[in-house]
Amino acid sequence: MATEIPQYGLKAYALFFAKHKDKEEFKQSELDWIVGQSMKKKIFSLLLRTGWIKKQQDNTYICINPEIIINSLLEFKVPQIIKESKKDYAFTNLSAVEIWSDYSYVQRGIEKSPYFIKVLKKDLKYWKNFFNSHNIPNYVNQGTTIGEYIILIPVKKLSFVEKEGYKVERLKETIKLAKLNEMYLYAYNYIKEKYKNVTA
Length: 200
Known about the structure:
With 200 residues, this protein is an alpha/beta fold. Helix content is 38%, strand content 18%. The protein contains 8 helices and 8 strands, in the order ααββααβαβαββββαα. The protein has helices at 7-20, 37-49, 66-73, 78-81, 93-100, 124-133, 171-180, 185-194, and strands at 53-55, 61-63, 90-91, 112-120, 138-140, 147-155, 161-163, 166-168. Helix 1 (7-20) crosses helix 2 (37-49). The radius of gyration is 21 Å and the shape is elongated.
């Protein structure tokens, strides 16, 4: 799973791919006369960590095909990444509707894939660092970009239940939200039918 890289990494990858495509192996020494030792280590560390090149057994490297990388940049990463978090959270708003409706309502595509997540105010710095470390754009209360991004909603108290391995806002609150918006009518009816004993 590849992630975005800064310009210096992109230029190094472009150089390696121009010379070797995704077939020929190359060594770190290719950069010896171009950049210093510390920068060379930084470049290779970046390209390996972000999935743009792969290390072979004999300390050589090979480029990952650019088509694979471009498609990987648009993959949905958040559902897997959030399971690594050490702090509590709650999917909320449209993300909660999505989960409680068993994805009968899906708000995402490769063009735009927002996740709405309640977090404790005191943990906001942790969450920004957490998503930044995975190169996932994140905003507080509002924002937008191409592809996946997070809207962090800081709260003083957090209430959630576990559903399908995710922490999500309680069903009652989710039903209330779905009921208020005609756009989510199908999801609302689905949830209402599945959980007949819960009323908004």
